[in-house]
C-alpha cells in the first residue's frame, strides 16, 4: 500500500495499491482502495494499524505467478490475525507458524493442516504435540534432541513429515539480529560440525518420521537475489550428499523467506520476479550438474507479503524545537514499532488530513514512551507548520509491527483496521486499559 501525496485538487490521500514493478516505492499511484485515511482516524482513533486486503492478496498472487510449481508459504510471524489467516487460506498459500499461539489462530480459521509448516528452535513438547495432533504438513527439525522428542509424540500408525533446518553458512539480512544463515547463530543444524549428517541419520532411524527435505532461512530484509542463489546451490549439494550417503533422494527444498521491501522512497525491494528467476536458475542448474531431480520448492515470504500492505496512523501530540532538532511527538512509538530501536530500521512519514503550503523541514518523529531511544523516524520531511492534532501516516508497517507490539508503559496495542472495496472494518480491536488490568491478579 503506497501513500498518495496530496494531489493538485487538495483531496485527502486515499489508499493506493502499488503493483509489483521493478521497484517497490511510495510514489504517487492511482487510488484503488477508496478509503480516506481521515475516515479511519475519525472512526477508529489513533494510533491504528491499517492493512489493505487487496494489496496482501495481490502480493500472494505475485509470488504464485512467478513460482507456479512451488509452495508459497506465508510466514505468520510477520503479521497474523484471523482475518490475515483467512486471506492466506483463501489465496491457497501455506502458513509457516512458529508457536502454539500462531498455530491456534490458524486452527481457529480452519486453516488446512497439510499446508502448515511448524518452525522453532525451542519448540516445547506441548507445541510439538499440538502440531502433530492438528496434523501439520511439515515440522522443521532444528536440533538433534528434537528428533526423538518428536518421534515419541507421533501416534501409532502415523508418520510425521519433517524437514531439517540446515545452516548454509551465508551472511545475509539487514541487521545482525535478523541474520540466520551463518554459523554462530541459534537456528538450524551446522553442516560443518556434522550435525546435519547426524540429524539425517537419526530421522531415518525413526519409523514415525518421514524425512521429505531440507530447509534453510538466510535472514530477513534481503534486497538482492545473490544470497539466495548461493543458498540454492549449497542446499542442492546437501541433497546430493544425502543421496550419495544414504541412497535416498529427498523430494523437497524449502528456501525460507527474507525477501526485502522498500521502507523509504529511494529504496528498492527484491521483487518476486528477480527472486524467482535467480533461484529457479540456480536450483535447475545445480540439480542437473549433480544428476538430481529438481526438488519441489517451498518459499516462506513474510515481510514481502504483509509489509508494504500496512501503514500506521498517529496523532501529533507535541512539537518541540530544540537547539539541534525539531521533535514531532505522536501518540504511539516503540510499543507499536520496536524496529528502529531493535534494528536501526528507517521509516518515512506523511502529514495527512490537511494540506500545508509551507516547505517541509526535517524533523525527528518520536513516540510517547519513557525512553530517549523511542524514535519512529529520523530526518522526516514534514511541513514546517506541523502542529498538535495533525495526523501522520507511516507506510510499510504491515510486517513485524502488530506482531511485535508490546504494552510498554502499559500502553494498549493499536487496533488493526482492514480496508477493502472502499470500506474499512476493524479486524483486531484496540487493547484497552481493562485488557491490561485483567491479567494483573493483584495481591
Ligand atoms: C523460518 C523463517 N521463514 C520465514 C521467515 C520470514 O521472513 P521474512 O518476513 O523476512 O520474509 C522467517 C523470519 O525471518 C523465518 O524465521
Ligand atoms: N523481526 C524482524 C524480522 C525477524 C524475522 C524472523 N526470523 C524484523 O522486524 O525485521
From TrEMBL:
- What is the top EC class of this enzyme, as a single word? lyase
Carries keyword Nucleus? no
In terms of superkingdom, the source organism counts as Bacteria
Give the Gene Ontology MF terms in alphabetical order. Answer: diaminopimelate decarboxylase activity
Which residues are recorded as binding pyridoxal 5'-phosphate?
258, 300-303, 400
Could you tell me what reaction this enzyme catalyses?
A: meso-2,6-diaminopimelate + H(+) = L-lysine + CO2
Residues at which substrate binds: 303, 339, 343, 371, 400
Q: Give residue ranges for domain Orn/DAP/Arg decarboxylase 2 N-terminal.
A: 54-306
Checking CDD domains in the record gives: PLPDE_III_DapDC
Q: Which family does it belong to?
A: Belongs to the Orn/Lys/Arg decarboxylase class-II family. LysA subfamily.
Q: Quaternary form?
A: Homodimer.
| Xref: NCBIfam families | lysA
This protein's name: Diaminopimelate decarboxylase
Amino acid at each position: 500500500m503506497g501513500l498518495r501525496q496530496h494531489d493538485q485538487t487538495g483531496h485527502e490521500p486515499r489508499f493506493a495499491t502499488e503493483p509489483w514493478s521493478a521497484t517497490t516505492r511510495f510514489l504517487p499511484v492511482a487510488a484503488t482502495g477508496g478509503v480516506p485515511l481521515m475516515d479511519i482516524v475519525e472512526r477508529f482513533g489513533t494510533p491504528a494499524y491499517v492493512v489493505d486486503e487487496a494489496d496482501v492478496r495481490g502480493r500472494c498472487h505475485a509470488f504464485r505467478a512467478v513460482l507456479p510449481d512451488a509452495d508459497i508459504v506465508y510466514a505468520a510471524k510477520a503479521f497474523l490475525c484471523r482475518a490475515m489467516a483467512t486471506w492466506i487460506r483463501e489465496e491457497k498459500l501455506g502458513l509457516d507458524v512458529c508457536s502454539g499461539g500462531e498455530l491456534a489462530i490458524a486452527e481457529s480459521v480452519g486453516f488446512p493442516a497439510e499446508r502448515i509448516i511448524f518452525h522453532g528452535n525451542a519448540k516445547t513438547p506441548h507445541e510439538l504435540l499440538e502440531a502433530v495432533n492438528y496434523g501439520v504438513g511439515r515440522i522443521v527439525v532444528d536440533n538433534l534432541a528434537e528428533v526423538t522428542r518428536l518421534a515419541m509424540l507421533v501416534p501409532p500408525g502415523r508418520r510425521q513429515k519433517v524437514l531439517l533446518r540446515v545452516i548454509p553458512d551465508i551472511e545475509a539480512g539487514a541487521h545482525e539480529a535478523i541474520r540466520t544463515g551463518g554459523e554462530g547463530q541459534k537456528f538450524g543444524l551446522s553442516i560443518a560440525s556434522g550435525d546435519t549428517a547426524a540429524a539425517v541419520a537419526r530421522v531415518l532411524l525413526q519409523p514415525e518420521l518421514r524425512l521429505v527435505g531440507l530447509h534453510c532461512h538466510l535472514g530477513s530484509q534481503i534486497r538482492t537475489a545473490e544470497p539466495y542463489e548461493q543458498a540454492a546451490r549449497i542446499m542442492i549439494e546437501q541433497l546430493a550428499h544425502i543421496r550419495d550417503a544414504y541412497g535416498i533422494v529427498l523430494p523437497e527444498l524449502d528456501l525460507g523467506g527474507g525477501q526485502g521491501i522498500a521502507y523509504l522512497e529511494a529504496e528498492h525491494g527484491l521483487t518476486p520476479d528477480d527472486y524467482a528467476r535467480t533461484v529457479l536458475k540456480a536450483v535447475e542448474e545445480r540439480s542437473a550438474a549433480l544428476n538430481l531431480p529438481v526438488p519441489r520448492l517451498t518459499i516462506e515470504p513474510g515481510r514481502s507479503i504483509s509489509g508494504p500492505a500496512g501503514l500506521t496512523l498517529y496523532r501529533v501530540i507535541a512539537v518541540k524545537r530544540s537547539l539541534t532538532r525539531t521533535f514531532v511527538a505522536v501518540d504511539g512509538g516503540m510499543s507499536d514499532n520496536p524496529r528502529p530501536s531493535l534494528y536501526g530500521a528507517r521509516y518515512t512519514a506523511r502529514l495527512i488530513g490537511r494540506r500545508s503550503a509551507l516547505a517541509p523541514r526535517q524533523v525527528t518523529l518520536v513516540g510517547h514512551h519513557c525512553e530517549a531511544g523511542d524514535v519512529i523516524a529520523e530526518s522526516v520531511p514534514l511541513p514546517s507548520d506541523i502542529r498538535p492534532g495533525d495526523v501522520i501516516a507511516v507506510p510499510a508497517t504491515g510486517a513485524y509491527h502488530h506482531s511485535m507490539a508490546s504494552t510498554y508503559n502499559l500502553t494498549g496495542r493499536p487496533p488493526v483496521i482492514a480496508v477493502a472495496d472502499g470500506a474499512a472494518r476493524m479486524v483486531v480491536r484496540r487493547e484497552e486499559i481493562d485488557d491490561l488490568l485483567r491479567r494483573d491478579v493483584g495481591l
